[in-house]
Amino acid sequence: MFYTINLKTKRRIEAVEIKNHINKIILESKFSSGLCFIYSPHTTSAIMINESFDPAVVDDINYFLSKLAPKEGDYNHLEGNSDAHIKSSLIGPSKTVIVENGRLVLGTWQGIFFLEFDGPRTRTVNVKLIEG
């Protein structure tokens, strides 16, 4: 089963919590058990699983990534978004989460985030549910 989540980001660097979107997909599809593969088909974004209770955690991660790969740098890529490509490569475009009894198997405080590094933009996130 394949699904697409459509997002519109508002800032250049932004974290969008998408766990509720994925839970809705699982509920409406009546998917019970298997794997949920979450993938961003964009080279300047990423998918991350981390704490969603305190937004300062995601802010700290974005702050660290911006220190590691600042917007202005001695980059060769001419579009002016090399930092976004580097951040995307460091975090990665996908995550896989176990689904059991129709629920994502995540820790108490874990959320699933779409990380935008070159917004604002219209984006998609692909979700593939694999029974097993």
Describe it for me?
The structure is a single chain. This protein is of the alpha+beta class and 132 residues long. The protein has one domain (2-71, 79-131): Jelly Rolls (Sandwich), CATH 2.60.120.460. The chain is 27% helix and 38% strand. It has three helices and eight strands; from the N terminus they run ββαββααββββ. It has a five-stranded antiparallel beta sheet with strand order 1-8-3-5-6, covered by helices on one side. Strands 2-7-4 form a three-stranded antiparallel beta sheet. Strand 5 and strand 6 (103-104) form a beta hairpin. The protein is elongated and about 50 Å long. The two termini are 13 Å apart.
Could you provide a short overview of the structure?
This protein is an alpha+beta fold. It has helices at residues 19-29, 55-68, 82-91; strands at 2-8, 14-17, 34-39, 45-51, 94-100, 103-104, 110-116, 122-131. It is built from three helices and eight strands; from the N terminus they run ββαββααββββ.
